[in-house]
Amino acid sequence: MPAFKKLLRRLIRPLGGLAIMTLFIFHASGYWSISFINRLEQIAYDLRINLTLPKTGDPQVLIIDIDEASLREIGQYPWPREYVAELLYILFAEYEISTLGFDIVFAEPDRRGATEALEKMLEQRPELAPTLRPLMAEMDGDKQLAEILAQTSAITGFYLDRESEEKVPSVGNLPKPLELISRIPPSYFPIPQAKRFSGNQPILQNNAISGGFFDNPLVDADGVFRRVPMMQEYKGQYYQSLSLGVIRSVLGMPPVELIISGDESNPILEGLNVGGFKIPVDNQSGVLVPYYGGRGTFEYVSVIDVFRQTVPKEKLQGAIVLLGASAPGLLDLRTTPVQSVYPGVEVHANLIAGILHQSFKQQPTYTVGAELLLLLFLGLLLTFSLSRLSPMLILVVSTIVVAGVWYGNMLLWIDYQWVFPLASPLLMVILIVGYQLAYGYLVESKGKRELSKLFGQYIPPELVDEMNIDPSSITLEGESRDMTVLFSDVRGFTTISEGLNPEELTRLMNAFLTPMTGVIHDYRGTIDKYMGDAIMAFWGAPLKDEQHASHAVKAALKMVQVMHELGPEFKKRGWPELKIGVGLNTGMMNVGNMGSEFRMAYTVLGDAVNLGSRLEGLTKQYGVDLMVSETTADAAPEYLYRQLDLVRVKGKHEPVAIFEPIGLKTEIDEKLEDKVSLFHTALEHFRKQERGHAERLLDALKSDEDHLLYSVYLERIQLYRDTPPGDNWDGVFTHTSK
């Protein structure tokens, strides 16, 4: 049961991240659409549009503007149709424009004051019909405009509506439907369906080359024009948008080919091919408007300037022209990603320029699959990596991931015109990171505080932080581990303590124990306990340390060095100079939280621990500050050691080889290395009972350095001369005291 609870605790954190990832995968796949994410995606789309706007329109596409100046000169709109006819004549005959698209509809017959007066006169005086009818025919503006339309490539505009004809009847005429080339009927696709229309007067539409709708049934829920359909269906026939009609007019009215992938069971409308120009669309024939800039990016030319012919001919010659209005009361305003108030006629201008320059952003059919793979990759990566990191590293990694997602997305946007979802992966990353941080703070902080409280007095803060990364790997239960233990003791401490008052003794001990503890912590050691002037520490727990022996030897050498450095400072304070002995042993030890129900302590036990204590006690007998066992020397081979003896300590039957660490092999000078080698040679002669050879070498060493170690062996040589140990002597010296 405890193992199950432990497993459950370890699974809760990744399960939360996986749940967030699954939510976003369901959204991306379309199984569960989340409106909030969709809204964020729209905002992200608008942001990228505005960051990458060219801000320069196509000079080949212009807008003939019914502006305030034109209304002041010509009069209130709608104008007599003969004025419109004259405008078309000037544009096509005098300025030689390529084509024109009407962003207005002529749904009502031309009604002028003079014509109406003649009709009333005719009602009162029917006998005047032979005279008045020819005059009225000459004044028929619709007829005049129809005659001009028949001679040009102008595209009329009309409106398709979702309102039922039963409520509002259709008016006017529609142009001829689109000529489509498709291997699969377009009825297979959810192309917007209209139920009524507002078309142009029959005489006008029948004489025009074609027409195009200017309404947009694909406006997003927030009212923003991001997509526009290229086609709509009405009573089984398909009609083109105004922008598509204008392009077809320029190209000589080619048929429209549907670019379809898949078969009849799952057809996907990917684009339209119009005279070699490809328009990427979705299944509704919707295209993303390729905005070039804010209002006024495309040049506006006033109608009155055209009438006066003050516009340079080269500006309009060969141009694609749209007729629209900017005058108050006539202005057709839309909400777009680039501006909240944007002329509808300029939306068509952007579409026409986009087709000409093939500058459409697109979402290929494989976008959903790519998004699912990205969400899966990021979700798994963050879920199983962040749980192992500290909060600071979590923030660093998440920042890198967010930056990478943004950079990759913008790369696809700019270089490949690919509208890849941005809000979805970014929001998922933020939520997973937030969850990981919250879990770490709210759920794991309690366990981490307990670890810090328990081990903070034993180990340095850096190790506590490492333990906090994965608290579940730390156990307080007893276990057997290969570790290294250290014992240190101040020599002659009893005499020293008797010469100081309690306050001075306390200050002395603090001044001694603080730097010693700092050294142990610096080399990843754990303080077991202070025993008066003695220190017990170990390496390899609570955090496992594959180099515990090396760290322990390095710490012990540093302790001896620091103790020598403290001598002058202690002398200044009137304190005696302290000398320490340090013993190290490596082996299997029992480690864990041990004690009674009244008091517990995290400590180590075992024969290997006891041997470490014995070695510390032997240091003064050999005149060395530091002594290690053979197992420690073998586990830290990067150090040069001087073998001191082969001894049998009190309480152990098996002999133990003891060594003095000299320093790192790479840092030892040749003279010192030769001296250690010479001693090892003397020791070899001694153990072979070649006492004369050993004595001569030891005398030579002693003459160069008066070391207690040499005196110890010279005394033993004399002792064994007087009382030989026998031919079967194994070279072991037995110590009878601790």
Automatic annotation (TrEMBL):
Q: Is Membrane among the key words of this record? A: yes
Family annotation (CDD domains): CHD (cd07302)
Which PROSITE patterns does the entry link to?
Answer: GUANYLATE_CYCLASE_2 (PS50125)
The reply to whether Transmembrane helix figures as a keyword in the UniProt entry is yes
User: SMART domains per the record?
Assistant: CHASE2, CYCc
Q: Please list the residue ranges annotated as the Guanylate cyclase domain.
A: 484-616
Q: What keywords are annotated for this sequence in UniProt?
A: Cell membrane, Membrane, Transmembrane, Transmembrane helix
Q: What is this protein called?
A: Guanylate cyclase domain-containing protein
What is the species of this protein? Oceanospirillum multiglobuliferum
